[in-house]
């Protein structure tokens, strides 16, 4: 943890916007460098123009590849095109529009010429496809965002007609085709000037904000929040939710204050994250220091919330508990929702990623609900949310969504605005803060200690970790307890987890290779205290190193 973590950014911390934008247009990627090729992670292609990994050439190639992919899949409806507040998002959206218009794709951009949260894009796709007459071509979408990443980064994500993140088959095809186009000097990319693209007959507009905000009563008990007079402080953290929060308060007559409505592509108002980087991570105490300090200084909010730049993540701050650990809030949300949503499928399961806290397992069991544990990545929750068979899906990195009151789908992508507002509903209905309710859960199920650390690994070692089988692990004990499970596939759906999870009665660890650094990540948890957690972490590292070396 840096000594400057949690302090306001200084001028030398800020990205040079002129250099950033110049590099977007001027720098050409060196395809001999793997870091400069198109590569889709769990949330699309990300990079920086200053590192030659997110430049105009990348975006036009990816967009042309998406055009060809959707044509091959028979997707001929409109494509919703959205952007967040990162400096590279607008030029990338413009580049994408030039290609989409040249290819004759019907595109719908924001009617207010503003910013669009990822959940609003997902909601728009699903609403269009649900309401379209039978036989009408389905819509899909692109959202230009690197989520919580630093101001110098850009991101580009494709959401097919199911409204959620594209699966690996789709992203793999798109990335391969985009790199092929780059290798061929962009021959095969159709493109027209921006002025022509904006005026093209195929370019239209859509009111993302009204579609999303006006539909909120179908998924949340806003009457309860309003009648209880819950005082809400909402911090958009300079992101795409900035106009949404004010409209939510006004249209639904809530006691809601937008804490900081500033939009600045340098994010000069931000407090530095743990490593002295500006990062809009609403689950980080350092990045959320301003809002936490505001609450501790006596701000008159019953609930304060933060969102990252595309509002797909949530941060919950309570007067009595400070910033809640994402795992803690997920457990509270699950316990509350499955007790207060009578319109949900009575057999709907609880979805979580395999690196989320095991207190969720215990909560699900107490509710009489089946737990479905999936690999990291929100795409795994899409089928359940669509069908209603998995009415809630959440991951440890402060991302979740859940279904409407009647059990139908709300979004199939993470929705930080929704989870932030849920904290106010929980407070209104129960009379207790989410942090107080979590204390009640730990009194009932135990108080787990959870942490993630990184361990050095070569590229070869990371590859070996991703290919392990349970039989490769010969250990029978972990931190003094018998190992009850060795997993390389998620128990909920049998999909590869790209690493290893080892479980005992009161603890577990999971090890996964990093996609961007020469490390692997060790997630670990113990219900036997901090000292036991340290023992789990130490033995986990020794066990994994012994297997992959």
What does this structure look like?
- With 549 residues, this protein is of the alpha/beta class.
- The chain has three domains: 16-211, Alpha-D-Glucose-1,6-Bisphosphate, Chain A, domain 3 (3-Layer(aba) Sandwich), CATH 3.40.120; 319-447, Alpha-D-Glucose-1,6-Bisphosphate, subunit A, domain 3 (Alpha-D-Glucose-1,6-Bisphosphate, Chain A, domain 3); 449-548, TATA-Binding Protein (2-Layer Sandwich), CATH 3.30.310.50.
- 35% of the residues lie in helices and 19% in strands.
- A seven-stranded mixed sheet has the order 1-2-6-5-3-4-7, sandwiched between helices.
- Helix 2 (56-72) crosses helix 5 (168-183).
- The longest helix has 19 residues, at 530-548.
Keywords:
549 residues, alpha/beta, Alpha-D-Glucose-1,6-Bisphosphate, Chain A, domain 3, TATA-Binding Protein, 3 domains, 7-stranded mixed β-sheet, 5-stranded mixed β-sheet, 17 helices, 23 strands, 19% strand
Instruction: Please name the fourth-level CATH homologous superfamily of the largest domain.
Output: Alpha-D-Glucose-1,6-Bisphosphate, subunit A, domain 3
Provide the structure class: alpha/beta
CATH topology of the largest domain: Alpha-D-Glucose-1,6-Bisphosphate, Chain A, domain 3
The domain tally reads 3
What's the CATH class label of the largest domain?
Answer: Alpha Beta
